[in-house]
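Trying the structure run again after the queue cleared.
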Amino acid sequence: MEKFKNSKLIFKIVCILAISVLITIITISAIVINQATILSKETIHSMLQTKSELKANQVNTVLGDGFSIIGDLQEYLESYFEEKTSLKNKDEGKLEKSKVYPMLLPKANIIVESYILNTGWSAVKNNESISGLRLYFEPYVIDDKREIYGMEIYDQNAQDSSAIAVQNYDQYASQEYYNIVKNTHKPYISTPEFKNGKAIFYISYPILLNNEFKGVVVIDLLTSSFDNVIDSKNEYETLTASLLNENLDIIYNAEYPERINMNMSAVVKAKSIEEWKNLAKFKKPFSIATDEQDNNKFERYLYPINVADQIWWAQVGVEKGELYESVYALTFIVSLIAVMTVLMLIFVITKILSKFLKPLDNVVLAAQKISNGDLDICLELPYKDEIGTLGTAFVNMANVLNCIISDIEAVLASMSDGDFVISTNSQTAYIGEFAPIRQSIAQISDKLSETLYNIDRSSKEVNAGAEDIAKAASELAYGSSEQGNIINEFIKTTDKISKNINNSIEQIEETSAISVEAKIKANEGSQAMKDMLASMEDINKSSVTISSILETVETIARQTNLLALNAAIEASRAGESGKGFAVVANEIRDLATRSSETVKEIDVIIKESIQSIIQGRQIANSTAESLNDILDTIRKTADISNNLLKTSALQKVSLKNLLDGTQKISSVVQSNVAASQQSAAVSEELAAQAQNLAGMMDYFKVK
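Done. Tokens:
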């Protein structure tokens, strides 16, 4: 901004005009661009919305044949079940050969079978979008002699007028197109599945009688039937069209077949999906701007399609940058035209202003000369406009200033020689607002004369006062110096006391640390003694247990001895044949006797050990009590050391505060000494200057 203020006038005028024109053109361009953008976007939105609606109608047309066929079969079978409780009760006596199964069926059933077959052959053969038609029934619904009844018709079957007979109920009962319909009694539409390289989805309708499930009609539709419908070939390279189910799963996409069965959440970011689902709840056409997983932005247009009891969506999307490319191009062109217009206007205005403001440069040059003290100027301007008048005024001003300056120069030269008894000579130069200058010069002369007289008188008085101040300042400096010496001695003494207290604190801290360590060692000894007592108690219990076991062993030995004695008696009764057994019995008896004696010896040793343990436990208890007494003494010593340490710390803080305060006093005293010395020096200097001033006053001539 400062640079702009200091710029040339022509530059400022051009800038202001350029900004004004630029703002005007920008405003007009913005309005034009805004209106054009709105109209273009509305046209684009309308076109793509119409395209999505058209594709939705085309999908309805493609699905129409399939729904018509499956609806006719459903209606036919349900009406037949309404007429009869079951097909097996009609025309029981008339049997004909089934075209599906190798068996005879009632004629009424054959009629139903023929209708189904003819409808299926015609549907598969005449509709490229239908790849198969299937019917599955609950067990024994068609015939009480045939548990499983179902048929499948595909392209080859339609060509040779045949059907595939279903032999196993589990083959279809567990499938979604049967199981879900059976449980819900509602139509079911599957997601696409790939079969023989073709993407197929199934539409399954229930066959009901008084809300009782009888079976299903299933039609297989090829997603390739949407090739000509969901075709995104257009003037937009990024335009994509797809068919979505109510869960936003992709049923069909010509450009990206690998995305079939993929949910749109894999393509679009979660925030956009959430907004998408909220709009889809209304089941009405809508458009949405989405952020893609690859960080692109798409404008998507959706139109609802009623498929059975579901809502599918025909979706058309274009990358946002390409969609609004024409709008951006229009914006660029309008902006470019506006910029070129502004530049052209600035060029024309600059040329015109340069021509008419060029004489102003001479005026500015003259003003610069005047500002630099050069009053000898001459201006010749080609125009008699405001600039010409301004130049003439500058010349007149320079002449007047020249006269005034010459007069002031003469007056000031006399004053510089010390002559204040003078006055101005020129009367004509001081015109207008310059007249007070002449009066001011006279007043300055009078005032200076009077002031110099007063200065002379005051300088003499200052000289006398300065000598007195210098004497008093010297005495004050001496007294302050003595105070400083006394305070320094006090600081040294206080510092020694502080060091002694610090040494005492260190010794107390060492004593406290030793007490803490002794306390820890005593605790460890007490704990070790407790552990030893616990171990001795365990040994005592183990010894008692062993003694009990030995008693049991002794009892066993006595019983063994008795048994051996009885065996010996029995062996003696046996005579010669029992001699060997008698020898063994005697050996067992001797072994039992020795075992009993050994047990008694061990029992004696264990009892002695128990007695020793009891004595050791008593000694250990006494030792533990002594350790506890030592521990209490150490604790008391540690407490005393801690209290002493706290007291010493407080003394240290108090002494430090005292030392700090003393040092502050010392600093103040030293400052006073310096100030006193400085005051003395200043007073002496003031006296000298007063003398010099009195000498200089003799130079001036005053009134």
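Residues 441-697 form a domain with the Helix Hairpins fold (CATH 1.10.287.950). Worth checking whether this holds up in the mutant runs.
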